[in-house]
């Protein structure tokens, strides 16, 4: 029996955060998905992937503002974040995959009113 296309059978997300009373925090996170077929005939599949990330920051004791650095895809893994569903891809990739984001770092300041 064929599997439904474009749906990973397993998806996993986790994060671990350490926070000090002074307002500093550090967070590690992971996101993973199993491989999945992109066509109803089950001839072409997207590979599985695991992404790692980290976030560091400081939140003011008043909780009114925060600064942070957020790094994602630390290993710069190439992966398909989504795929076009086809009836029968015949095992060939014809631009069916949407690439995921490469390694990136975001910094920011948040203000709460």
Automatic annotation (TrEMBL):
Pfam families with a match to the protein in the record: TonB_dep_Rec_b-barrel (PF00593)
Localization terms from the record: Cell outer membrane
Transport listed as a keyword: yes
GO-annotated biological processes: iron ion transport
InterPro entries membership: Beta-barrel_TonB, Beta-barrel_TonB_sf, TonB-dep_rcpt-like
Domain TonB-dependent receptor-like beta-barrel as annotated: residue spans: 2-74
Bilayer topology term: Multi-pass membrane protein
Keyword terms, alphabetized: Cell outer membrane, Ion transport, Iron, Iron transport, Membrane, Receptor, TonB box, Transmembrane, Transmembrane beta strand, Transport
Chief location category: membrane
Any one Gene Ontology cellular component term annotated for this protein: cell outer membrane
Coiled-coil stretches: none
Name of protein: TonB-dependent receptor
């Amino acid at each position: 029996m064929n599997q439904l296309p474009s749906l990973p059978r397993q998806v996993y997300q986790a994060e671990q955060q350490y926070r000090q009373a002074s307002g500093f925090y550090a967070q590690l996170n992971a996101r993973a998905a199993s491989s999945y077929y992109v066509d109803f005939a089950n001839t072409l599949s997207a590979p599985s992937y695991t992404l790692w990330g980290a976030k560091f920051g400081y939140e003011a004791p008043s909780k009114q503002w925060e600064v942070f650095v957020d790094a994602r895809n630390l290993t710069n893994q190439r992966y398909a974040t989504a795929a076009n569903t086809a009836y029968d891809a015949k095992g060939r990739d014809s631009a069916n995959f949407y690439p995921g984001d490469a390694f990136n770092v975001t910094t920011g300041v948040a203000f709460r009113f």
